[in-house]
Q: What sequence folds into this?
């Protein structure tokens, strides 16, 4: 749990939002429930939430997801039906987690709970890993996953989402900077890799774009057939 920072809940169904809020409060979370993307934007500035649960069925929420995903210190859960998911599941989306409706409120709570733990877990080295530094300098980039950012040689900073930072930390910690999709799913998404699960590949695509843009194409994430993903420069 991120101190006193609340969980922001935006949902088209007021009853569902209230139920989610009550369930989160029962576990000790503070919540802020809003009804429109504009209200959510105000809350992002004023309340500084640690996690935002954003309903894609509301107009203009897809754009809000992309905006929120770029905020440091914020993790985003996008919620929507299959059509809405297909509309926003592009490389530019940047959400840390995706939930498909219909779903019970308890599932939202479970994902909030997992999301609050998984970045800390991803940013901790494995038990048998050597001691880590706070940053790595590779391919002209200073990589600081614990601070959710990479910095170019000219000082330009690129912010990472929680999932992207966790993914990068796993690759940096792994031998030859190569990690299996199963390992990434468990450490970054907090769940066992399932058939047709897109979360790992989505985050890889997002991270690839950001690292490529920040390094003028010198640093990237590549898929290694049958093995997983590797950081190369």
A:
């Amino acid at each position: 749990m991120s101190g006193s920072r609340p969980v922001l809940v935006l949902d088209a169904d007021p009853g569902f939002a209230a139920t989610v809020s009550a369930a989160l409060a029962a576990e000790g979370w503070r919540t802020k429930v809003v009804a429109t993307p504009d209200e959510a934007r105000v809350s992002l500035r004023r309340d500084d939430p640690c996690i935002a649960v954003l309903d894609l069925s509301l107009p203009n929420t897809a754009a809000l997801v992309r905006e929120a995903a770029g905020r440091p210190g914020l993790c985003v859960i996008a919620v929507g039906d299959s059509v809405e998911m297909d509309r926003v599941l592009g490389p530019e989306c940047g959400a840390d987690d995706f939930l498909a409706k219909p779903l019970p409120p308890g599932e939202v709570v479970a994902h909030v709970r997992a999301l609050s733990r998984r970045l800390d877990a991803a940013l901790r080295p494995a038990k048998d890993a050597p001691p880590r530094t706070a940053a790595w300098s590779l391919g002209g980039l200073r990589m600081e996953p614990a601070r959710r950012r990479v910095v170019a040689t000219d000082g330009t900073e690129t912010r990472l989402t929680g999932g992207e930072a966790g993914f990068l930390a796993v690759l940096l910690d792994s031998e030859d900077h190569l990690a299996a999709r199963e390992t990434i799913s468990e450490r970054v998404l907090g769940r066992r890799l399932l058939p047709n699960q897109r979360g790992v590949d989505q985050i890889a695509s997002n991270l690839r774009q950001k690292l490529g843009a920040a390094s003028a194409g010198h640093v990237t994430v590549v898929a290694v057939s049958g093995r997983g993903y590797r950081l190369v420069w």
